Amino acid sequence: MSDVKKLQQERKQLFEDLFDGKIPKRVPIRANLPLEFSIQYAGLPLAETQWTLDGVEEALDKACQMSKSDYYPSGFSRYPAHLQILGAKGFVMGSNGFIQHPEIIGMEVGEYDEFIKNPYDCIMEKILPRLYPELNTDPTTRSIVFAKAFKAFFDYIEAYGKIDAKLIEKYGFHVIPRESFSVVTAPFDFVADFLRSFKGIAMDVKRCPEKIQEACEAMLPIQIKRGIPPVPSKYGHTFIPLHMGSYLRNSDFEKLYWPTFSKMVHALADAGQPCLIFCEHDWMRYLDYLYELPENTRLYFEFGDPKLAKEKLGKKHIISGFYPLTYLQSATKQQCIDKAKELIDILAPGGKYFFEFDKSPVSLDSVNVENYMAVLQYVAENAKYDNPGEAAASEDKSANKPKTIEIPEFKSNYYKAWEEYKVGHPEIGPKIEPIMASKLQSYEEMIFRMIFMLI
Fold first, then answer.
1. In terms of pTM, does the model score above 0.85?
2. Residue 425 structural domain
C-alpha cells in the first residue's frame, strides 16, 4: 500500500470511528477552503478563472498542499455560466469576482395561498421567472434558455468532479461514500431566503404567522426529498445551514421554525441519513431544542459557549466549530495555536468532536494563511487520544426514543415519477423497463436538483 493510500485509509478510519461511536486515534479535521479563496491564493484573476476554469486545477492543488484537513478541503462553489444565461437576480457576480446574494423577493405576501397549494408548481410557474428573468418569456424561448443553462450547470459539475477526484487520490483525503451527500435548508429558511427576503419574512411573522406555518408544512415533502441522497449512509451527511432561527423571538422560533425543521431532520434520520447542521450565528438559547434531534446529529457552531454546548449536547451529538476565523487574522501564531488547544481541551474529551473553524475563509484577506496552516498542523500532530477504540461518551439510550416521521408525498405537475410515466407508455416491455426506469428517472432528478440550486 502506498503512503498516500495508507494516509487516506487512516483519515477514513478517523471519521468512521467518530460516526460509529468510538474514540478515534485523534480529533478528525474538516476545514473547507472555498473556490474563491483557492483562486486568490494561487494569484489568479477571480472572475475570469471561474468562467474559463483555466488554472482551477492548479489553484485547488495549491490549496490542498497548504491544508492539513483530513476531509477534502475544496468547498461549495457557485458556477457563473448558467446564472448569466438565466439572467439571475438573486446571485450576481460583482466587479470583484464574488457571486453575491442581494436581498430579493420571489413571492409577494398575497401569494402564500397559491404557494401552499403546491409549492413546486408555484416555483416553476411564478417564482423562477421572477428570479431569473430570461425565463419570463414565451414557451419556446424559455425552453431554449433552460436547455442552455442545464448544459452549462452540469458541464461545470462534471469539470469540477474530475478535478476533485484527481486531487483526492493525489493527496489521500477522506471523502464520504459516493452519492451519500445532499444539501437542504430548513423549510422556514427556504421561505425566507429567496421567496420573502429577510425584511419580508420579518414582517410576515407579525402579520400572517399562520401562512408561514402552512408554507413550511407545504415545503416539507420537497425538503425531505432534497435531503435524502441516492445512497443514504451513516458515513455520509446532508448539510443544512441554518439562517433565520437565531434572529427570531423564542416564541416565534417554537411555533414557526422548529416544528418543520425537526420533522425534516428526523425524517432524514429515519431514511438512514444523518445531518451536518451549521448553526449560523448564536444558537445557545436553543440547545435544549437541538438536544431533541436524532442521536449523533452533527452540530457545527459558529458562535456561542463551547463549554455549555459540550455539557448539554456532547454525550448525544457530535460537535464542531467555535474556533473564530477572525482570530487567524489578528492574533499571533502562538495565540492561534493556544486557542485551538483551548477548544480541544473543552470539546475533545469523550470523543464526539471534529475540528472545524467557525466558518470558511471566503477571501484571501479573511485570514493570515501562515496562522491557518499552523493551527491545522497543531491539531493534526497534537489532538491525540490516549484511549482510541473505546466507546465514546454516551447517554442512556432508553431516554432517547426515536421519533418516527411519516414522510408526506411529494407531487407536482412538473415532476413525474417513473410509475406515472409508465402509465402513459404501456408499450414499455418488462425486460427493458428496469433499464429505462433508471435512466429516465435520473434525468428527472437532475432537473429537480438544478432547480433547487437556483433558489
1. yes
2. 416-455
